[in-house]
Amino acid sequence: MVSLCYFSPMTFLNTTLKWLLQRRLPRIEAMKQNPGVVQQKVFNQLIRAGRRTDWGKKHAYKSIQTIQDFQKQVPVSSYEDLFPYIERVLKGENKVLWPSPVRWFSKSSGTTNARSKFIPVTTESLDESHFKGGKDMMALYIANNPDSRAFEGKGLSIGGSLHQNPYGNNSAAGDVSAVVMKNLPSWAQYIRTPSLQVALMDEWEAKLERMVDITSQENVTSMLGTPTWGMVLIDRILTRTGKSNILEVWPNFEVMMHGAVNFQPYRELFQQHVFPSKSVRYQEVYNASEGFFAIQDDLSRVGEMLLMLDYGIFYEFVPIHEADQPFPKALTIEEVELDKNYALVVSTNGGLWRYKVGDTVRFTSLYPHRLKVSGRTKHFINAFGEEVIVENAETAITQACEATGAVITDYTAGPSYMSNGANGCHEWVIEFSQEPNDQQRFNQILDDTLRRINSDYDAKRYNDMVLKRPRIHIVPPGTFYAWMKQRGKVGGQHKVPRLANSREYLDDILRKVFEV
Known about the structure:
This protein is α/β, with parallel strands linked by helices. It has 18 helices and 20 strands. It has helices spanning 9-22, 25-33, 35-50, 54-58, 67-73, 79-90, 123-144, 176-183, 186-190, 196-199, 204-215, 227-241, 264-274, 390-404, 439-453, 455-461, 479-486, 504-514, and strands at residues 104-107, 118-121, 154-157, 162-164, 172-174, 192-193, 220-225, 255-258, 281-288, 291-295, 305-307, 313-319, 341-348, 355-365, 370-376, 380-381, 388-389, 407-416, 425-434, 471-475.
C-alpha cells in the first residue's frame, strides 16, 4: 500500500476529486434510462413551486395536474412577453416568477434582440443546474479519461463582469459565467485561474493583459470557454512569450471544454496549431443564461451532447413551423424524433415558464437523448425562401476549409438582395488564420455543400434563377475582434452573429473594413 506522504498536495487533490466525481455517474446512468420519469418529477416540482407566485396564480397553476394541462393553460413566451414580470423582479419584488428571492441576473449579449436581456438566476438554478452541470461535466470527462491528471493543475476560464442591478436593487447582473464564478465554493476557486478579482474585471483589454501575466506562469491543464475568445487570449500569451504554440507554455494541458459557438469550424485550428497534440481532448457543453442544458458524455461522438434532464429544467420541443405560435404543438422528451429540428422551450427553477430560448436543436440519438444545437430561431437567411440555418453554414464552411487547407477564425453571412434586374446571392465575410490554397475551390465547395444539404437553397440556385453563387470577402486578421470591440461586445459572453436575414451586420463590418 502506498503511503499518502508520497503524494504531492495536487496529486492528492486530483485523486480525491476523481473519486468523488465518479460517484455521480450512477445517477447520470439512471437519468439516461428513465428520461420520461425524470422529466415528470422535475415538472411536478416546478408546478408546486410556481403555485406560490404571481405568475402561477394568473395561470391557475393550482388546477394543473398534467403536462397537457400546463400546455393548454400557459402560453409559450419570448423574453419580451416575460419582461414585465422580470422587471418587477429586477426592482426587488418577491414571488413574482419564483417563490425564493432573486439576487442575481444573467445579462445576455442580446444577440437576438437589440437590448440586453436580464435572466433571473435563483439559488436553486445555481445549485441544481449550473453547479450540478459543472460537476457532471468533470465527472463525464473523467469517465472518458480515468487516468486524467487535470486536477493537478489549474482550470482556466474567461469570465465576464458583474455590475449592480441597473434598477438599483440590492442585487447584481452580469454574464452567466461571472455569476457562477462569483458563487463558486472555495474548493472550486482553488483549482481555477485567474483569481476571481481578475476574472471579473470590467475593462476587457486590461483584463486580457492581467490574464496573460498570470496564466502564462500557471500550470494550466484545462480550459473552459468559447473558442473565439480563448484564441484571443492564447494569441496574446504566444506574442508575450515568443512560443510557437501554447503547449510550450502549458505542457500539461489536457482538455478544452468549449461551448456557446459551433466548434467544428475551429477544430482543425485547435488540433493542428493551438494544441498540436493528439493527447489534448475536447468536450462540448451547452450552458446558457437560462440553465445548464447538455454535456458531451462520449468524447468520440463529436458535436453530440447528452441532454441533462434532472437539473430543475422541464424541456419542450416545438416543430420549427409552429415556433411562433403561443400554443404550439410541443413535444416532451419521450415524443421527440431523430434528425428533426425543434425550437427549444424551457421551464426552469429560475422562474422562466415555457420560455423560448432562441436555439434550435436536433436529436442524434434516443435513449440516451443526445442532441446538437442546429442554430438560432432568429439566426438564419431566408430572404429568398432558401431557409439556410446556422448548422448548414457550419457544415459548408467546415468542408470548404478541409478541402483547401484553410483555417477559419470568424465569419458572418447575410443576403445581397435582387436589384435592377440582377439576381440576389448570399454574401459572406470571412477571416482566416490560414487562407485557402485555392480561393475559387473554397467558394465552389461552400456553395456545392449548401446545395447538397439544403434542398431549398439548391432550388433557388438552380441555373442562377434566383440566387447566384455566394460573394465572399476575405478580411485581414483581427477584423472581427476590432469590429466587436467597436460595438462594445468584447468578452467571453459575446458571439459574432453567424447568419442574419438582413444586411445589418454585413453593411456595418464592410463599411468599416472597406470604407464603402
